[in-house]
Specification:
The complex is a heterotrimer of chains A (184), B (793) and C (291). By secondary structure, chain A is an alpha+beta fold. Chain A contains six helices and five strands; from the N terminus they run E-E-H-E-E-E-H-H-H-H-H. In chain A, strands 2-1-5-3-4 form a five-stranded mixed sheet, with helices on both faces. Chain A is globular, with a radius of gyration of 17 Å. Chain B has 793 residues and is α+β, with helices and mostly antiparallel strands. In chain B, strands 3-7-1-14-11-12-13 form a seven-stranded mixed sheet, with helices on both faces. Chain C folds into three domains: 47 residues, Uridine Diphospho-n-acetylenolpyruvylglucosamine Reductase, domain 2 (2-Layer Sandwich), CATH 3.30.43.10; 111 residues, Uridine Diphospho-n-acetylenolpyruvylglucosamine Reductase, domain 3, CATH 3.30.465.10; 112 residues, Enolase-like, domain 1 (2-Layer Sandwich). In chain C, 35% of the residues lie in helices and 25% in strands. The chains are: A alpha+beta (184), B alpha+beta (793), C alpha+beta (291). At the A-B interface, helix 2, helix 3, helix 4 and helix 5 of A face helix 1, helix 4 and helix 17 of B.
Chain lengths: 184, 793, 291
């Protein structure tokens, strides 16, 4: 993939357009030269080696590639990398701090909300966006908010429980969730 | 003081999963996450037509694209004797097409390039000239007298029939039918479905010319079988092949077979002398790799008027696509179809089965089941419901009087299996009580008066899980045992490896619990590794719910070997004879002097520092486990539904599951398996299928048409448990991973058929799409879903 | 999964975008939400030579009611903006009913109503909704703006009358003469599925009588269907069961479905009629409640 970002080999000639983009990924400023056709998911995975963002389908259905784009959950396989120029991206790798897991991560583990783990990063980011908008969701609201993310293993029941677990943990007026609630 | 087994993460502990630590951080290591220095990327060009002769392939434009490093065609492979490969069912399959394409999506050429975008550009630049041939999309077309011969590559193959197979007592069954009061008959099609793990297949082949070693990272549920297959296909020495199966984003049977993409990536790596990565896209996965099901049933049941089952006759026609590449025991051509009706006490039965070639993707993999067991149990429970209706009997009562009774074990089934344990009536009763059976029937009747359609569906079944034994079960002659290797280090920490391969089932967590149970070493002190053929002991992999019954048993057995050696060390340390040593969890003590003891950890260090004279040092061993029988879990699934009579849309009201899978190692994980299985059952009943039009176009080749349910549609599940330990498994466990997928679909379908009972409909083929249900209600006839799908311009 | 090469431009004004389109000679595609375009490019069903990304153009992400009741939805207003709008339902009940059932929650955060209408997918939800509301698209080209009724905009599957150098900058729903009511029902097998059948019914009530009505049908023809005859049958009625039933039958006749793996043509017609009846009943119930 090195030909798709950073630098274009001479053999490509002048007709291959390349663009410089600068963005923030998980709080860190990054820059890359990319071909416009490079999908955001591939920039993250192959360019920045943030391989927690998975690609599970080619038709914008599965949501395994979900990332937060300026805080909004999007399918990163259905945006071009160049569209992230000047924007902020949060991937699964940015959920935890060095010392602490995010409550959503803890919830997924504690409630057995994952099996093969492939859909999990996307699920967790959709869940994060939900909880920032709605800190105390009902089961139906969780199921609705996660309906753009397919899971093949769990049957979703434990994923719903995981999100409720996280909502509970995040509750009690922590600053982060209050602010997010007002934004939503 | 004995250890608390739950506290050390032993048997019965709902221990949180070890593997989750990396997955929740996005630090899993799936195939596409692996990047090797100098790696090139491969893409596959697939046939747009279902059946066509290849006149020519022009690859010149692809070669001309900067960044394209190699273009491979069938012709190139044929020159190296690699254009065809053996399948897991003693057939052959084209790697890249040479003479004809035989299904839409068949692999025609591969392009290797600096990145996958350029490889795709290369594929697009290839020009193939096809001469279309008439396509065949179902068995009746395949068997028509003037049907075109699909496998004209095979000498001696003069029809599209793959096999004819028969089992059971034909004459005895004829007699049972002659003496029957009532004969109940039904026909149906179990549609083609795809296991469709969210992660598709892929490989990275890395051939090192200097060392002659080939390392292949690939999505496989059975790395050791793949190593053998690669050795045979590529004619490489087996010890110079290393297969590594990394984290798998689901498998469900899809990642058992050998696919052309794997083979070509290996060849490309050998030719280019650099790593070559092939990552299949979802469309490629759905259109070309191992599907499940696609099988037709004609079934009849002989009944006495009091409700007793006297005999069963089944004939199945299976559609194997263009190449017979089922992953199944070589002895059983239609898998374990003859395990149908194993939970019922039936005197006699007869099964005939015929398989055919069609112009569809090859497969017939065991999609989240033991070889064809899902079809068997679906047919069984649909036949049971129809028979109860024909007798005018309550469907629960009909099951109750025919289920094998607790005191009848071991029980020989009419087709020769030996079921060994269970409490079938208890499970049924628990399920009926949980759903509130009588209340629901009253509610249903009351709703009917107001024009609302409620229904209840029951599915009870036992299924054979955990192949082998090796007497009867082999794949390509390789016996279906499994293995475990345990290395207890001197500080009492341990490394465990097995021949299985987890894909989400949680082996890294569960196997450590078995070691904890057997040795008292805390589960967190046991590292579990699988999937690397250079380090793991030889095993047959994970599918057919065989991990716990076979590899899990091997883990227990190797732990016991370790314990036996540790006992000798303990005797030495305690200066008593071995006969005077007693074991409690994690500790040996002197009989009659319980205060005098040594822990397993103390034995471990002694194994390296203070072993008795004459004893081999170390505390490491392995076990190869060949189970004496299959395991026979039992399940009772009950679903209630409401059908909208105006649209045919049906909603699930409740789902109750009662599973008896024997002893549960990690109840949390077991329940996770059941819920996942129920979801796939719901999916198959409701929306998930692959069909074809009359031109052989695959409908269902991407997630826009091949529908997996989301969190929104998927119902909630109420789980219940009965425990009848397996009498032959070392810790009493039975398989569980697939029960709900196997038994579940019939519960949903039976519920919908029950809801529209007044329409006089016996069967609607899955999935029960709204239009099918609506047509059944309004037209009052059975609905066939067999391809070709009816389309009009 | 890997789109073909293209030139990428990200203009910051509509005029600049129009200039780029004009120069591209029909080989350019506009990227707004991209939730239909990019999937088609990934499958290489679409391979435009140039992408004109309008996401950097300011001032297009609005939805609002003018003083006279005219409703305007900008080209960068996302489905989710509509779904989450607290006030939309009061002004535009049909739009509010459709917004949550378009695609899936993630697609809705990017996809746009205007883009969806211009994509002209016969299975797209928004075009039917707009047709039922007599909505229009405002197209801007080198010579200024023109308003094109959505019913005239779409002239075939995935085809519109937009010129190669025109950009659809907003969707406009004319002001209602009475109280607006309406609904959208979609038969989908799961979230994110395309509509087997979708029906949009919009009415303007004058007292308890229908002053104006529109019915748009999704997924039952080669393009979005304006069931104007069926809608006309509602005008002057109080949405009583007989009247709605007559309209439902006319809507079913207006549908031109084909049999496929989602259902037979007859079935789809039947669902069209059923949905018209259901929306009619919903409106009547809510009207009664309001009264």
């Amino acid at each position: 993939m090195s030909t798709l970002f950073e630098e274009v080999p001479p053999s490509f000639g002048d007709d291959v357009p390349v663009r410089r983009l600068e963005l923030t990924v998980n709080g860190e400023r990054r820059a890359a030269d990319v071909e416009p056709r490079l999908l955001l998911a591939h920039l993250l995975r192959n360019g920045f080696r943030l391989t927690g963002t998975h690609t599970g389908c080619d038709t914008t259905n599965c949501g395994a590639c979900t990332v937060l784009y300026d805080g909004v959950p999007v399918k990163s396989c259905t945006m071009f990398a160049v569209q992230a120029d000047g924007h902020e991206i949060l991937t699964v790798e940015g959920l935890a701090t060095a010392s602490e897991l995010h409550p959503i991560q803890e919830g997924f583990k504690d409630e057995h909300g994952l099996q093969c783990g492939f859909c999990t990063p996307g699920m967790m980011l959709s869940a994060k966006a939900l909880l920032e908008e709605n800190p105390n969701p009902t089961e139906d609201e969780i199921r609705w908010a996660l309906s753009g993310n397919l899971c093949r293993c769990t049957g979703y029941q434990n994923i719903v429980k995981a999100v409720m677990w996280a909502a509970e943990k995040l509750g009690g007026g922590t600053a982060g969730s209050d602010e997010a609630g007002e934004e939503g | 003081m004995a250890l608390d087994e739950i506290k050390i993460g032993g048997l019965g502990a709902s221990r949180r999963r070890v593997e989750d630590n990396r997955f929740i951080r996005g630090k899993g290591n799936y195939i596409d996450d692996i990047a090797l220095p100098g790696m090139l990327h491969m893409e596959i060009l697939r046939s747009p037509l279902a059946h066509a002769r290849i006149r020519s392939i022009d690859v010149s434009a692809a070669w001309a694209i900067p960044g394209v490093r190699m273009v491979l065609t069938g012709e190139m492979l044929a020159a190296r004797n690699l254009a065809w490969m053996p399948t897991l069912s003693y057939d052959t399959q084209a790697v890249l097409a040479t003479d004809k394409v035989r299904f839409q999506g068949q692999e025609v050429a591969c392009v290797v390039a600096d990145d996958p975008y350029i490889a795709k550009d290369g594929c697009e630049a290839i020009v193939v000239d096809y001469e279309p041939l008439p396509p065949i999309v179902n068995p009746s077309q395949a068997k028509a007298p003037d049907a075109p011969l699909i496998r004209d590559d095979k000498t001696g193959q003069d029809s599209n029939v793959v096999f004819d197979w028969e089992v059971g007592d034909r004459e005895g069954t004829d007699r049972a039918f002659a003496g029957a009061d009532v004969v109940s008959a039904i026909e149906m099609h179990y549609p083609r479905s795809h296991p469709s793990p969210i992660e598709a297949c892929g490989s990275i082949a890395d051939f090192n010319r200097a060392t002659s070693k080939l390392t292949v990272y690939m999505t496989t549920q059975a790395p050791h079988i793949i190593r053998a297959a690669v050795a045979l296909v590529a004619e490489l020495p087996e010890h110079m092949i290393r297969i590594v199966s990394p984290d798998l984003g689901g498998g469900f049977g899809n990642k058992v077979p050998v696919y052309p993409g794997y083979v070509v990536s290996i060849l490309a790596s050998i030719l280019l002398e650099c790593p070559v990565k092939w990552i299949e896209d979802k469309s490629g996965n759905l259109i070309s790799t191992g599907f499940g099901r696609d099988i037709y049933l004609k079934g009849e049941m002989a009944l006495r008027s009091d409700g007793r089952m006297l005999g069963v006759r089944m004939h199945t026609d299976s559609d194997h696509g263009a190449f017979f590449s089922d992953a199944q025991p070589s002895k059983f051509k239609i898998g374990l179809m003859h395990s149908a009706f194993s939970c019922y006490d039936i005197p006699t039965a007869h099964l005939t089965a015929q398989g055919v070639y069609t112009n569809k993707a090859p497969g017939g993999v065991a999609y989240r089941c033991s070889f064809r067991v899902t079809e068997a149990m679906y047919f069984q429970e649909r036949m049971v419901q129809a028979a109860a209706a024909d007798l005018g009997m309550d469907q629960a009562e009909f099951r109750r009087i025919n289920l094998v009774r607790d005191d009848d074990f071991p029980h020989r089934t009419p087709w020769g299996f030996l079921t060994d344990s269970g409490q079938y009536q208890k499970c049924l009763d628990l399920g009926l009580e949980a759903i509130g059976y009588e209340d629901f029937l009253a509610q249903k009747e009351e709703a009917r008066q107001r024009g609302r359609l409620l229904g209840i569906g029951i599915s009870t079944m036992t299924e054979p899980l955990g192949a082998g034994n090796s007497r009867e079960y082999d794949i390509l002659g390789i016996k279906m045992f499994d293995s475990a290797e345990l290395k207890v280090h001197m500080t009492g920490k341990a490394l465990l490896r097995t021949g299985a391969k987890t894909q989400g089932q949680g082996h890294e967590t569960t196997w450590a619990q078995i070691v904890a149970h057997e040795l008292g070493i805390p589960a967190e002190d046991v590292l579990v590794e699988e999937g690397d053929t250079d380090t793991a002991p030889f095993g047959m992999g994970t599918y057919a719910s065989r991990s716990t019954p076979v590899a899990g048993a091997a883990v227990a057995m190797v732990s016991r070997k370790i314990r036996a050696k540790a006992r000798k060390i303990a005797a030495h340390l305690l200066e008593v004879s071995e006969e005077d040593i007693e074991w409690e969890l994690g500790r040996f003590s002197v009989r009659g002097a319980p205060d005098r003891g040594v822990t397993i950890q103390e034995c471990a260090i002694a194994a390296y520092s203070n072993m008795p004279d004459g004893m081999e040092p170390g505390l490491e061993n392995n076990a190869y486990y060949d189970p004496p029988n299959l395991t026979w879990p039992f399940a009772c699934y009950i679903a209630t539904v409401e059908v909208d009579p105006e649209t045919g849309v049906w909603d699930v009201l409740r789902v109750v599951a009662v599973d008896d899978c024997g002893v549960r190692i990690n109840p949390m994980i077991v329940e996770g398996q059941i819920m996942g299985g129920l979801t796939e059952a719901y999916a198959m009943a409701n929306m998930q299928f692959i069909t074809f039009d009359e031109d052989g176009n695959c409908i269902g080749s991407n997630y826009m048409d091949y529908l997996l349910p989301t969190a929104w549609e998927t119902p909630g599940f109420e789980l219940h448990e009965v425990v009848t330990p397996c009498p032959h498994h070392p810790i009493g466990a039975k398989g569980i991973g697939e029960c709900a997928t196997v038994g579940g679909p019939a519960a949903f379908v039976n519920a919908v058929i029950d809801a529209i009972g007044d329409a006089g409909v016996r069967n609607i083929d899955m999935p029960l799409l709204p239009d099918r249900v609506y047509e059944a209600i309004t037209q009052g006839h059975d609905i066939s879903g067999a391809p070709p799908v009816k389309t009009e311009p | 999964m890997y789109p073909s090469r293209f030139r990428y431009e990200a203009p910051s004004t509509v005029a600049e975008a129009i200039g780029l389109l004009a120069a591209a000679d029909g080989e350019a595609k506009i990227l707004a939400g991209g939730q239909s375009l990019i999937p088609m490019m990934k499958l290489r069903f679409a391979a435009p030579a140039m992408i004109v990304d309008i996401n950097g153009i300011g001032g297009l992400n609005y939805h609002r009611a003018d003083g006279d009741g005219t409703y305007r939805i900008g080209a960068l207003c996302r489905h989710a903006d509509l779904e989450k709008s607290a006030s939309l339902g009061d002004h535009q009940p049909t739009i509010a009913a459709a917004a949550p059932v378009v695609a899936d929650p993630l697609v809705r955060t990017r996809g746009t109503l205007v883009g969806s209408v211009c994509h002209a997918d016969p299975q797209g939800d928004w075009a039917s909704v707009m047709v039922s509301l007599e909505g229009a698209i405002v197209a801007q080209g080198p010579n200024g703006q023109r308003s094109i009724p959505v019913d005239d905009l779409i002239d075939g599957p995935f085809q519109t009358v937009l010129a190669a150098d025109e950009i659809a900058v907003e969707a406009v729903v004319p002001a209602a003469r009475g109280t607006r009511a309406g609904g959208y029902l979609k038969l989908e097998r799961r979230v994110g599925d395309f509509a087997t059948v979708g029906v949009a019914v919009s009415v303007e009530m004058s007292g308890d009588s229908v002053a104006k009505a529109g019915i748009g049908l999704t997924g039952v023809g080669p393009a979005t269907i304006n069931a104007s005859g069926a809608a006309a049958a509602l005008v002057g009625t109080s949405l009583e069961a007989d009247a709605v039933d007559a309209a439902a039958q006319l809507a079913a006749e207006a549908a031109q479905p084909r049999s496929d793996h989602r259902g037979s043509a007859d079935y789809k017609r039947h669902v069209v009629a059923t949905f018209v009846r259901r929306i009619g009943a919903q409106i009547q119930r809510s009207e009664q409640k309001a009264a």
